[in-house]
Amino acid sequence: MSDDGAQRAAQALADSGIEHTLTKHGRVGSLEEAAAARGVEPHDIIKTLVVRRAEDDYLFVLVPGGREISWPKLRALLGVNRMSMPDAATAKDVTGYERGTITPFGSTTAWPVVADATVAGRLVSIGAGAHGVAATAQADDIVEALGAQVADVTEPAG
């Protein structure tokens, strides 16, 4: 199934028309290992998190390495009181990707995308549908291709 995810993401990236490079590496155990394998800094790794806004209503949040979602900021942005992270099975059901491989590119449903404001203006690496597969591209191109809303929705991790 992971090959299917990687193929779906690669096709969606190609169809988007954005300039990107696909990188394939083995499984990694940390943000630092992922950054080294992809040739970027840890803060340039973009995690795609699936957030449940309401029943059958999800969105993707693009979060730079070393940062985490600020729930109060995200709730205020979206005008909702409660949100949650779906369990792994639900995340796979609503995106077609297993946790750790999720990307908005090629998702089985085109959920809205919110990109943290800190991603803008730099080269980043985003997951591409399978473990150890990533796409490196300009964040601004990714944001435009996905029609993402850019907002301050994260805080430093830890």
Question: How would you characterize this protein structure?
Answer:
The strands form 2 sheets. Strands 1-7-6-2-3-5-8 form a 7-stranded mixed sheet, with helices on both faces. With 158 residues, the protein is α/β, with parallel strands linked by helices. It is globular. It has 5 helices and 9 strands. It has helices at 2-16, 31-38, 71-78, 88-95, 139-146, and strands at residues 20-24, 45-54, 57-64, 67-69, 113-116, 123-127, 133-138, 149-151, 154-156.
Q: Please count the helical segments.
A: 5
User: Radius of gyration in whole Å, from Cα?
Assistant: 14 Å
What oligomeric state do the depicted chains represent? single chain
Question: In this structure, how is the largest beta sheet organized?
Answer: 7 strands, mixed
Strand share of the residues? 25-35%
Distance between the termini: 33 Å
Structural class determined from secondary elements = alpha/beta
- Anisotropy-based shape: globular
Helix content, binned percent: 25-40%
Average pLDDT number: 95
* Secondary-structure element pattern, one letter each: HEHEEEHHEEEHEE
Query: Uncertain regions: pLDDT < 50 for 5+ in a row?
Result: none
- Which strands sit side by side, in order, in the main sheet? 1-7-6-2-3-5-8
Number of E-state strands: 9
